[in-house]
Specification:
The protein is mostly helical. Helices cover about 80% and strands about 0% of the residues.
Length: about 220
């Protein structure tokens, strides 16, 4: 069976796996972004606290993803829980690092001006600092998403959802008629999803970042 014939015969399952893969990455990125930005807001004003937040999230990436999922299986079982926990934790570093850098890079004179017109600290954060820090934060989200696309495939080891199941099935049956087709289908599907997500982030940036800031 050729690769194209395999895609045609398995298109329904491949579309389902692709949807589950994209959904898992998207939902985990939403959680990681919320946690990462919140952690950055709490720590960026202090040099040591901000650096500690970056170092702590960076240390998570030193643990191999397969090992992290394996360690979580006895605690939370198979399937979605270890996938969500692993992807969320691995997605934190780029968001935290870029948010801290972005918030620290806001021009102090703008913050002083906002203070001078009577803005509270919360208002300054929401209306001045976070909007100005949004471009580097979005870059961190893009980097994190691309990274999680690949890591999500490893979640198939714990019966997680996504295109990783195609890859693992192909690897487990190497030598069979469709083994290579399965690995190729899963791999190409992940690459296509990563490109689509990145294109969506580019569009989001054009819609949410003022032209003057982009320049």
């Amino acid at each position: 069976m050729s690769f194209w014939e395999y895609l045609v015969s398995r298109h329904q399952q491949l579309l389902t796996d692709a949807y589950q893969h994209a959904s898992a990455v998207f939902q985990c990125m939403v959680i990681a972004t919320a946690l990462g930005v919140a952690l950055s807001v709490l720590t960026y004003r202090s040099m040591w606290a901000g650096n500690l937040a970056i170092l702590s999230t960076a240390s998570l990436l030193t643990v191999p993803s397969l090992a992290a999922i394996g360690l979580l299986i006895p605690l939370v079982g198979l399937g979605v829980p270890p996938t969500v926990i692993t992807l969320t934790l691995y997605g934190l570093l780029p968001v935290v690092r870029n948010a801290v850098v972005g918030l620290r890079g806001v021009d102090p004179s703008l913050v002083d001006a906002a203070t001078g017109i009577g803005m509270s600290r919360a208002a300054r954060l929401l209306r001045v600092e976070l909007p100005l820090a949004w471009p580097p934060i979005l870059t961190g989200i893009r980097v994190s998403t691309q990274m999680l696309m690949g890591i999500a495939a490893v979640a198939a080891y714990a019966s997680g959802p996504g295109l990783g199941n195609e890859i693992f099935r192909g690897i487990a049956s190497l030598g069979s008629a469709n083994a290579i087709n399965q690995v190729l289908a899963g791999t190409i599907g992940i690459v296509i999803l990563a490109l689509l997500f990145d294109a969506a982030y580019v569009l989001l940036g054009r819609l949410t970042i003022p032209r003057g800031i982009r320049v």
